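Anyone up for a design puzzle?
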């Protein structure tokens, strides 16, 4: 196993981490305990020591905790899990969720504890006002939280503000070759790494889509460059090549996937890509972009919108729907609209057509018109109904 050092703690973390959101599930949707146990134990045996889960990954914390307890493996691994901070309404809620998680994971401490899915500094400030820092300090003193960080799904400027706002032990970002300039992006990774903050990578394969259904043109580019390497290996090597990457989480739900990723990891130290390989990715990305509907680069020059529209996020999701797939696009769209967070929705439906954004766009995009198009394609009545239900549940 390749290990990378968490420069804040000195911990030696496996470069391949286990994303437990995608533990195998049966027809009922419940985590398949037997299959999960085999996978987790083989991963540990082969050197994986970082396991990531979350309060909201139905049954995942319980399954991981049970495997570690039954096989006496708790002390051999680092557990990372996440607080559903958007559900926290009062100071007592921090402890309420945390105790539940300790119980589910059958442990009395968490190695890496994260605020789940933070998108803005405003969200952190809300939690601070509820006494987050005091609560974390108490749990550190009690030896129940060792490292404290956040996972991020917002725009790049917010990432930098969040990094600057606290003495974080680590952070977790969505990052892969298609997201090089999306969300935190390469700039965010390098900013965090320059401060010795370990960066954990999620969605390295965009939920498997960079491993499977890449556009035909992209597949051709990869095969012409090296027919022996899988699409997943191309995507993972792009990440491990970067020294700022500490752990890459992969949601492995089959033994073959686990073994393939382990093999790829062994041969992918920082700087592993050859010059010829580096030249492959821009051509693959260009193939994805051919399917794009808007030439938005995600630069955010058009922001902020006075009506609260998340312009780059809406366009990124709209493009993703056509380049990657319907589910991937909708997931991104829901994130872009901020449905998982407090605050108002960032939907293009709120656009007042003032035109201020279009004047600032270096790509010359007719933003209000394109937003209207995105709303038509991304918010058909059935999706709009689902969005309303989610907003009601989240009290928005
Ligand atoms: S045109 Fe619409 S999206 Fe652009 S700034 Fe005005 S309200 Fe916001
Ligand atoms: S300014 Fe233009 S290219 Fe940049 S994020 Fe806005 S719409 Fe996209």
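Challenge accepted. My sequence:
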């Amino acid at each position: 196993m390749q290990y990378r050092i968490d420069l804040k703690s000195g911990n030696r973390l496996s470069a391949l981490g286990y994303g437990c959101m995608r533990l195998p599930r049966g027809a009922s949707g419940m985590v398949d305990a037997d299959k999960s146990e085999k996978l987790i134990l083989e991963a540990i045996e082969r050197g994986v020591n970082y396991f990531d889960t979350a309060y909201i990954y139905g049954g995942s914390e319980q399954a991981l905790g049970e495997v570690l307890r039954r096989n006496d493996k708790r002390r051999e691994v680092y557990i990372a899990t996440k607080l559903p901070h958007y559900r926290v309404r009062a100071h007592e809620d921090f402890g309420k969720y945390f105790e539940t998680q300790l119980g589910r994971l059958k442990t009395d401490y968490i190695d890496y504890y994260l605020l789940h899915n933070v998108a803005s500094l405003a969200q952190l400030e809300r939690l601070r006002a509820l006494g987050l820092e005091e609560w974390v300090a108490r749990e550190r003193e009690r030896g129940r939280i060792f490292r404290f960080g956040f996972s991020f799904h917002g725009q790049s400027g917010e990432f930098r503000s969040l990094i600057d706002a606290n003495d974080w032990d680590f952070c977790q970002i969505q990052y892969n070759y298609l997201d090089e300039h999306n969300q935190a992006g390469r700039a965010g990774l390098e900013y965090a790494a320059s401060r010795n903050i370990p960066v954990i990578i999620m969605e390295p394969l965009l939920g498997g889509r960079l491993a499977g259904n890449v556009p035909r043109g992209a597949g051709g580019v990869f095969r012409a460059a090296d027919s022996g390497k899988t699409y997943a290996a191309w995507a993972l090597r792009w990440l491990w090549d970067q020294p700022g990457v500490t752990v890459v989480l992969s949601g492995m739900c089959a033994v073959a996937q686990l073994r393939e990723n382990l093999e790829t990891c062994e041969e992918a130290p920082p700087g592993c890509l050859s010059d010829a390989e580096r030249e492959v990715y821009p051509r693959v990305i260009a193939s994805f972009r051919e399917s794009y509907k808007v030439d938005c680069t995600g630069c955010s020059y058009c922001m902020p919108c006075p009506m609260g529209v998340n312009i780059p996020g809406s366009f990124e999701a709209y493009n993703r729907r056509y380049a990657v797939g319907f589910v991937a696009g909708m997931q991104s769209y829901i994130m872009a609209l901020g449905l998982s967070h407090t605050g108002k929705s960032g939907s293009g439906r709120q656009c007042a057509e003032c035109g201020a954004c279009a004047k600032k766009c270096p790509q010359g995009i007719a933003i209000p018109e394109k937003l209207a198009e995105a709303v038509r394609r991304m918010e058909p009545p059935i999706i709009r109904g689902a969005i309303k239900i989610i907003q009601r549940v989240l009290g928005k």
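A detail worth pointing out: Strands lie at 3-5, 12-14, 16-19, 50-52, 78-83, 110-118, 145-152, 170-174, 199-202, 245-250.
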